[in-house]
Amino acid sequence: MRTLLCATLTAIAALALAPSQAAAPAGAHPPESELEHSFRDGISAERIGGFLKDLTEHPNFPGSAYAKRDAEYVLEHFRSFGWDAKIETFSVLFPRPIVRSVELLGPKPFTAKLHEPAIPGDATSAQQDEQLESYFIYSPDGEVTAPIIYVNFGLREDYAELERQGISVKGAIVLIRYGRLWRGGKVELAAEHGAIGALIYSDPREDGYFQGPTYPEGSWRHPDAVQRGSVLYGLYPGDPLTPFVGATAPAKRLPIKEAITIAAIPCLPLSYADAEPLFRALAGPTAPEGWRGALPLTYRIGPSTAPVHLRVAFRWDSTVLYDVIARLKGDTYPDEWVIRGNHRDGWVYGAQDPHSAHSAMLEEARNLGQLYRAGWRPKRTIVYASWDAEEEGTLGSTEWMEAHFDELARKGVLYLNSDVTMTGLVQMSGSPSLEAFARDASASVTDPATGLTTLARAELAAVVLGSRATPTSPIAPSADHGVRVSIDPPGYGSDHHAFVARSGVPTLNLSFFDDSFGGSYHSIYDDYAWYTRFNDPGFLYGRATAQLIGTAILGFADADLLPLEFTGTAHEIERELGGLKHLYAAYRGRQQRDETLLDSGAYRALAPDRVPKIPPRGAPAAELDFRSLEAAVARIGVSAAHFSNALAGTRLTGATRAATRRANAALLATERAFLRQGGLPGRPYYQNELYSPGRLWDTVPFPAIGDAILDGDLARAAAEVPRAAHTLDAIAAAIDAAADAVRAPIPPIPR
Ligand SMILES: [Zn+2]
Predict the structure, then answer these.
(1) 513 CA distance to ligand 1 middle (Å)
(2) What is residue 9's three-state secondary structure?
(3) SS (H, E, C) 438-482
(4) What is the CA(390)–ligand 1 centre distance, in A?
(5) Residue 497 near residue 398 (C-beta atoms within 8 A)
(6) Dihedrals φ, ψ of 365, to 5°?
(7) How far, in Å, from the CA of 493 to the mean position of ligand 1?
(8) Residue 292 CA to ligand 1 centre (angstroms)
(9) Residue 367 · residue 317 · CB < 8 Å
(10) Is the pLDDT of residue 479 over 50?
(11) How far is the CA of 353 from the centre of ligand 1 (A)?
(12) Residue 550 CA, ligand 1 centroid: distance in Å
């Protein structure tokens, strides 16, 4: 979480003593409406627990025996709540493994178990025949035999370190530890460096015994637990065979060999119990300190003394997905959709991921249905979506977004997502224009552990955990609490991905999160038994999640003027530019350091016994000039202030519906202005100039420019700067137009 800190600790202390005052400083928030109040009171933790139990009794991954049954359960519940609900199906590529094998050959042979055992006291862990194998979906078929080399997290800088040490992964199988980068990005980088296979393992340092007692004694990763996952390469999300279009029955499909998001080399995930014997087979130099995990051995880079035989083969079938889509029709603006979604599929049981928040979503829907039956009508149409196949690469949400793309462009006003939620602090991420709105929603919900509002608790925690603030975070005085928690960028790790990429619909993610996330992620142990001990015993944060998100949905659906504003936008874009400059400075710094070391002969002095490799002298780099971006950011700041003034003077009373619609259209156009026509270089799917992921699905500021810097292509980076500045100018112009539209929402005189 990014935080903005202020030094007024006296104010904080006063706040801690008077939480009720902190929760609602005079005039800081609009008065709570009766409706929102009764909505929040009606949310039941017990019912959330019931939904979670029902939907995690068996595995629920796409293609499982229970996938359709679960969709029908959700459909029937929405209908019983009074919603107009249906199932939309898509047919997607869903390979299942036929062969998975990792063998260490040589004098001390070892065969990886690739198996998660049943655990006494954890009933569902014993349903071994129903569980999905541990594997990487969208690995290609392959059989390779080669020595292994350890590459740490498998980041760009890790390969640079190997190069400095004169070690090449060409023709090797790389052993990579989980963390710091999307696993598909790790496999892609390994392939780009010439590896022919990849094994990604969970080191106990990240989520095993280094963190705390392991399952079942504690919440951290069991030695045999495997993190399954998707290894899509980041050119587009969703079904690999149907980019840009919904995977409906008549959709044209790519031949599998032309599906460019399928990984380039065979790969498998490993538990740390299976990884340890492979580490023991590594020879070569001791790994640098930052590369060492928590296994009880000396971490060496390799290569291994004996080769490893890796073999994977898949049945390349398609599977039917079931998205459950439910509507409550609006009575004032029925053609404007407030959409809220959460995925329903887990890798196996998915109690934490995704049913922690999916069960909250069902309870919101039940309660909204109650209000509807009692006579309330939302002004806008509310659309709830229970997505399928998020885990494989946001397939259910992406295919739906693509299938409804044109209608969504006309009608979508919000996509609000959740996924994992747990005991902890409120998390807000999404379109920066929703910062004030998201803060207001979190200020209206009580934190179960402290009785503070969830916003006040997060802001107080920010004082204590101040070191978490990123170095580029501006430090600003606070309006309310002496500290200010701002909204994070939307990211791309869940079902909002495709919406952010190209829909132009504002997005928001709301949840609760804590560092004690635990180690059941994507294993068979992410189940009811684990969840009710470690994630959210009593479902109290499930209830807070439903209260928070339902409040936001009610507020957005019923506001005549859409609650967007742009001071957050100006801050956030300035912060992104700061991040880009930082990235460039770091790149130049490394380059200059290498040149200095070359000139001084320092490399030769380093380790004469090891003969370090002398890096090639790079071509002299062009300097990047960010002045056009700085000027555009300044213009956005001016436009945002201009909008705030206009909004302060707005009187909607007397405005016609048509005039309000025009103002709202102008507001929504500010979000569409983030989209670059034609998309980012080499990745036409991604149009969002600021919030598309990098090509490895990593977080990269101004991805068109940032990716070019990371790839060492400064000429391309320089060419992208004016294009990005053009997008920023369009954002400033759209905010100006929105200011004009809200200043005078008076119907024009008929001519
Ligand atoms: Zn999830």
Answers:
(1) 13
(2) helix
(3) HHHHHCCCECCCCCCEHHHHHHHHHHHCHHHCCCCCCCCCCCCCC
(4) 7
(5) yes
(6) -65, -40
(7) 8
(8) 29
(9) no
(10) no
(11) 4
(12) 19
Find where tokens 């552990």 sit. Answer: 449
Residue 624: C-alpha distances to residues 355, 424, 585, 587 (Å): 46, 42, 10, 11
Question: What is the Å distance from ligand 1's center to 465 Cα?
Answer: 26
Secondary structure class of 173 (helix, strand, coil): strand
Give the Å distance between the CA of 646 and the centre of ligand 1.
40
Name residues whose C-beta falls within 8 Å of residue 142's C-beta, 6 or more positions apart in sequence: 197, 265, 266, 310, 311, 312
**343 Cα to the center of ligand 1, angstroms:** 7
User: Mean pLDDT across the chain, nearest whole number?
Assistant: 91
Q: What's the gap in Å between 39 CA and the centre of ligand 1?
A: 26
Identity of the residue numbered 731: I
What's the CA-to-centroid distance between 391 and ligand 1, angstroms? 6
CA distance 152 to 174: 9
User: Mind giving me the DSSP string for 191-217?
Assistant: HHTT-SEEEEE--HHHHSTTTSPBTTT
406, 644 in Cβ contact below 8 A? no
Q: With 70 as the cut, is the pLDDT of residue 1 above it?
A: no
Phi and psi torsions of 101, nearest 5°: -155, 130
Find the 640 Cα to ligand 1 centroid distance in Å. 34
> What is the distance in angstroms between the CA of the first residue and the CA of the last residue of the chain?
53
Report CA(608)–ligand 1 centroid distance (Å): 50
Alpha helices in 465-614 (DSSP H): 497-498, 528-534, 540-558, 567-600, 602-606
Question: Above 80 in pLDDT, residue 621?
Answer: no
In the sheet with 333-343, reading across from the earlier edge strand, the strands are: 84-93, 318-328, 380-387, 333-343, 412-417, 507-513, 425-430
What distance in Å separates the CA atoms of residue 639 and residue 206, rounded to the nearest whole number? 44
Question: Please, are residues 279 and 285 in contact by the beta-carbon 8 Å criterion?
Answer: no
- Residue 615 preceded by cis peptide, ω within 30: no
- Separation in Å, CA 649 to CA 64, 217, 556, 642, 745: 56, 60, 21, 11, 11
Q: State the pLDDT at residue 33.
A: 77
Mean pLDDT calculated for residue range 672-697: 97
Burial 23-42 (b: 16+ CB within 10 A, else e): bbeeeebeeeeebbeebbeb
Interval between CA 221 and ligand 1 midpoint (Å)? 18
Residue 608's pLDDT is 56
d(CA 374, ligand 1 centre) in Å: 34
d(CA 160, CA 361): 45
pLDDT score at 617? 63
Spatial contact of 703 and 694, defined as CB atoms under 8 Å apart: yes
Q: What is the pTM of this model?
A: 0.92
Cis previous bond, 204, omega within 30: no
Give the distance (Å) from ligand 1 centre to CA of residue 361: 14
- Other beta carbons less than 10 A from residue 608's beta carbon: 8
